[in-house]
Amino acid sequence: MNNDCILNEWISSIMRLPIKMCLLIIIGCLVVLYQYHLTRSWVLPQQHSDIQEMYNIKGLDGNKILDSKDSDANNNCCSMMPPYLRKDINVPPLYIITPTYKRAEQLAELTRFAHTLMLVPNVSWLVIEDAFEKSPLVAKLLDKTGLRYEHLTAPMPEEYKNKKSGPKPRGVSNRNKGIQWVRANAVDGVLYFADDDNTYDLELFHEIRYTKRVSMFPVGLVTKLGVSSPIVKNGIFSGFYDGWIAGRKFPVDMAGFAISVKFLLQRPNATMPYKPGYEEDGFLKSLTPFEPKEIELLASNCSKILVWHTQTKRNDPSTTLDLTKYGSTNIEILKKSIM
């Protein structure tokens, strides 16, 4: 018996049923089809559904893949973020100069700061070691961050390194090396000296990015006064508040100012002096002509702290490992990653 005969026989049997019974069967079939359609609509988004606007469903070898794509909804979401968290807008470049030196806390400090910079758009990180050779551990860390970086060295001159008494001009050779790199490789943007042992609010990087000449802002946890900052009265600069004035024209902290790259390039003689305690003052004075009254006041007229001198507690160097007891164990590997 072929399929046509079976179909005809089925139709004939239906026709012999009472009309009410036929209607019930037809209605039941329609309900089943409707429920099936709803189920498919819920599981698989249709071409013009809201979900389809957010995701593109692609068939590849029978598999369905959900790919996120740019959409109006995504753009709206980004537009609601604070400006310093957005990476979908074009912003001037930042050149962050970080002097560093070998010590027990070095990798921990650099790791923490790297995780901050990962959230900052269009940034170049200049990490400059006070050493003759680059540390492989620092190089490995920098490569792992995915940041745009330059790994340089600039050892302290021997005449200062071998100084028998008094403070040494730490970080000066590093910062001057960074300034040289910026002069040779940058044409615009903003330069900022950021030590690896500070704590930074992301808003800071957004604010300094638009510096036209020299901008300044408060730094927390500095000296016994607790803060170093320009003094602002009725919206106008009126002096400096710092725990160590010492006759300085610019008594500010190293983390408390940023410089326009164009402004720096117009002053080829600007440099940082090897004079402990007067590094910031000497550098800012070398930007002449430039006077304190020309400072660009950031952080809501210097009423907010966006950077702190947290200064991680110093740790003693790691003791020598007993290889007889711990050789060929994970402890031997861990000790190699400790400065």
From TrEMBL:
Cofactors, names only = Mn(2+)
Q: What class of enzyme is it?
A: transferase
Localized where? Golgi apparatus membrane
**Residues the record lists as binding Mn(2+):** D197
Q: Which UniProt keywords apply?
A: Glycoprotein, Golgi apparatus, Manganese, Membrane, Metal-binding, Signal-anchor, Transferase, Transmembrane, Transmembrane helix
Q: Which reaction does it catalyse?
A: 3-O-(beta-D-galactosyl-(1->3)-beta-D-galactosyl-(1->4)-beta-D-xylosyl)-L-seryl-[protein] + UDP-alpha-D-glucuronate = 3-O-(beta-D-GlcA-(1->3)-beta-D-Gal-(1->3)-beta-D-Gal-(1->4)-beta-D-Xyl)-L-seryl-[protein] + UDP + H(+)
Span-the-membrane segments of this chain are 21-38
The answer, when asked if Cytoplasm is one of the entry's keywords, is no
InterPro entries from the entry? Glyco_trans_43 (IPR005027), Nucleotide-diphossugar_trans (IPR029044)
GO MF term list: galactosylgalactosylxylosylprotein 3-beta-glucuronosyltransferase activity; metal ion binding
Q: What positions constitute the catalytic site?
A: E280 (proton donor/acceptor)
Q: What is its EC number?
A: 2.4.1.135
Protein's UniProt name: Galactosylgalactosylxylosylprotein 3-beta-glucuronosyltransferase
